[in-house]
Amino acid sequence: xxxxxxxxxxxxxxxxxxxxxxxxxxxxxEILDRMRFTVPTPIQYKAIPVLTGGADIIGIAQTGTGKTLxxxxxxxxxxxxxPGRALVLVPTRxxxxxxxxxxxxxxxxxGIKIAVLIGGASMFEQIRxxxxxPRVLVATPGRLIDHIGQKNVHLGDINVLVLDEADRMxxxxxxxxxxxxxxxxxxxxxxxxxxxxxxxxVVKIAASHMKLPxxxxxxxxxxxxxxxxxxxxxxxxxTKKKLLGKLLNQYKGTVLIFSxxxxxxxxxxxxxxxxxxxxxxxxxDRSLPQRREALEGFKSGKYRVLVATxxxxxxxxxxxxxxxxxxxxxxxxxxxxxxxxxTGRAGHEGHxxxxxxxxxxxxxxxxxxxxxxxxxxxxxxxxPQEKFSKPVTVFSSYRFKRGRGRRR
Length: 408
Fold this sequence. Notes:
Layout: H1 26-34, H2 42-52, E1 57-60, H3 67-81, E2 85-89, H4 93-107, E3 114-117, H5 123-130, E4 136-139, H6 141-149, E5 158-163, H7 166-171, H8 175-184, E6 190-195, H9 200-209, E7 214-217, E8 228-234, H10 240-250, E9 255-258, H11 262-274, E10 279-282, H12 288-300, E11 305-308, E12 323-326, H13 333-340, E13 350-356, H14 361-371
Parallel strand pairs: 1-6, 1-7, 2-4, 2-5, 3-4, 5-6, 8-13, 9-11, 9-12, 10-11, 12-13
Helix pairs in contact: 2-3, 3-4, 6-8, 13-14
């Protein structure tokens, strides 16, 4: 399937960009002023005028660039002016909660209610929330399908549909659920698709379910955050813990660590605590209250270190993370982009360190191919230096595995 001809918006450069002049209602501008948002990010500056004009959009921007505000402002403005409701689909529970918080800040002065429909939370409470006639539904695909099947929610009055972090939803195997949900949503709607990358699945959605979408891109698809520096250590598996301890003593700020597996995240967290650091873990085996407590504790400073699996790679919206550490390299090279997007957010500087074992040369090369630059290799004076083993065939695809659809 060939990619549809999607026009790319080239917004004129503004000498002093602001939210004024983007078609935003005065009342929302006042709300933004109270929230101390004065300068829009590039994706906000380019996307908001398109969305307030009613067009469908494909927004391509790396993580941490303010995409949620880019679509929540036009949605609240539309709902304040005319009947209907909005549905926002997201891949993870954490992201759903954070998206809902943004909508709450903008929509509360208008009396617009928001319902969050996610797995791991009380169905009873969600049903009670739905009975209050919320104007905005923020949902993960699996739980929304549950509510549709039980006739707790009807989507016949949805006139705005948002697919947020679309590439991540497809990576997690949610394509069948998304297709099913779209069949319940009226065709006469505005569709907004936001993604950090634009794989073929996203192109297919654009061709099948969007009306002449405008493509707004603020960075090439798959581009890492500009203000993030990279560093690679080649170490044996049995020396990772020792190197981790040295680095945690070296870096004094907040640290986000990624493990490939849930049991790995559990073991890493215990190791960090044994070294005297406050740490929490977040992955799919943790209950929703446990995950929220870990994330809130990380934001507030209760925990300096948060250990996560890739389920949280796009669900952690915390400004000021000093270091992202890939204790395990991701199997999917694009997940490297999403992981390191947790640092260097909102114009801040950030740093990303990765541990690679000698047999992981292919993984590193695939990441470098996506970044279009080499990862600088570092040595630690107290850790034995290793080298990659002899070259083997490099896979042509960045994706090694695709998860089956799971309810989040």
